[in-house]
What does this fold into?
Amino acid sequence: MKVLLAEYTTVHDPVLAPEGAAMLSVLKQSFLHCGYDVVVPAGSDFGTEIERLAPACDMGLVIAPDLLIAHYTQILEQLTHNLGCGFITAALCANKVQVEKILRLHAIPVPGGPPGGRRVIKPVKGCGAQGVRLSDGPTGKDEFSQEYIEGEHFSVSIVASRVVGDACLYFSGKPPLVLAVNRQYIDIDTDGRFRYLGGETPAHPKREAEITEVAVKAAGVLGCQGYCGVDMVVADKVYVVDVNPRITTSLVGITACMKEEIADILVAASKGEGPDKVHFSGTARFDTQGKVMRI
It folds into this structure.
C-alpha cells in the first residue's frame, strides 16, 4: 500500500517549514512503521506534484496552511482516497468569521466581537498565531476582531471518522476519537503580537471533560473528519477560538507518548473504523521547531 503525504510548507513557506517538517517526519515514520510505502512531493509546483503522484497511491493526506488546504485537498480527492478533512469543510474552517457564526448558532461559546477598545485582531483566513495581535487600533483589510479573554490556552486533537466524500462506502456513525487535550504555550510580545511556542501533551486540566465535549461538538457541527485540532481558551466558559481541519503541531508531542500508531488511526477513521480510545506513556513538551522532550 502506498500513501502520499503532501506537506506544503517544507518547500514553499520558510517561516512555517520547521513545523511542517516536524509533522511530516512523525507521519512518515508512522506510515513506514505500519508497512506503507510513503511518497512525498518534491517539485516546485505543489498542485502539479499531487496530480502526478496521487493516482499511483492508495491514499493521501494534504498538510498545508488553512488558506491553501482546501484547494490542494480537492485535487487529491479526485485522484485517491483522502485521509483528512474533506475540501468543503477545509474551505469552511479557513474562514474564521463564518466558523464563528456557525458555532455561535449552535450555542458553542466563542469570543464576542467588541466594536472597539483592546481586543484580538485576526486575519479572516489565517494559520496558527500568524498575524494575530492584541490591539486597540483598527482592523485592516481581511481582518476581524474578537474580545480578548484571559484564560488558559488548550487545544484538543481529534480524529473523526468518515462523514463526506466516499461516505456511502465508509460512513459508520462512529463518534470522534479524542486523542489528547494539549496545553498551549502562547506568548504576547510588547507589540501585542501572539506567538505560538508549542505545548505539552497529554494535559489533564480540571475541566477536561467539558473541554473535550465542546471540542467534539465544534468539530461535528463543522463536519470535520480525519485529524483536526480545536483551539480553546478556558475562562468562565470554554471558548472555541479556532478549528483547524488538518494535522497540527500537537501531533509531534502526541506521537512521542501515544502507544498506538497515528497511521493506523488515520486510515481506520477514513473508513469509519478505529479505536475508541488511545493510551499514553508519560507526557511530552514540544516546540515549533520539532524538538520534543519527554517529561
The chain has a mean pLDDT of 93.
